[in-house]
Design goal:
The chain has 138 residues and is of the alpha+beta class. 29% of the residues lie in helices and 30% in strands. The chain has a single domain, classed as Gcn5-related N-acetyltransferase (GNAT) (Aminopeptidase), CATH 3.40.630.
Length: 138
């Protein structure tokens, strides 16, 4: 589903690359995987519609939306926004005052999604210049 969600975007990558990235996220290579703030959404038939995965990446000094993906058949129907809001609510309950997301340059759909959720564009420079987004979840 993730591979298909990004197939025609700037984040397009071979299926094997997405497999490795997902394993890295849940395998704590991007900080501790925050399962309590990571969710999946299904359509009524039980088919996977989307997912949001969160890590607590010390390098960014806040939890990070490591991945948010929506199946092509249900994109632009609010699934991504629902998953993001649900994740932010879970993080707020756990006491995290802010959250970040790293968005690839040119991924305008993700940028708009995060802006609609109240994120503000900011620069985070842990070791090298990287673009990130920050939002207070309280």
């Amino acid at each position: 589903m993730v591979h298909a969600a990004f197939s025609h975007t700037v984040d397009s990558a071979p299926l094997e690359s997405w497999r490795r990235k997902l394993l890295a996220i849940v395998g704590h290579q991007y900080g501790s995987f925050v399962s309590s703030a990571s969710f999946v959404a299904e359509v009524s038939s039980g088919q996977l519609a989307g997912t949001v995965l969160v890590t607590d990446f010390a390098r960014y000094q806040a939890p990070v939306i490591a991945l948010i993906a929506v199946s092509p058949g249900v994109q632009d129907k609010g699934v991504g926004f629902y998953l993001l809001r649900r994740s932010l609510q879970a993080l707020a309950i756990e006491g995290f005052p802010k959250c970040r997301a790293k968005i690839s340059p040119g991924n305008n759909a993700s940028l708009q999604l995060f802006r609609n959720a109240g994120f503000e564009l900011c620069r985070v420079e842990p070791k090298s210049s990287q673009q990130g987004h920050n939002r207070s979840t309280s």
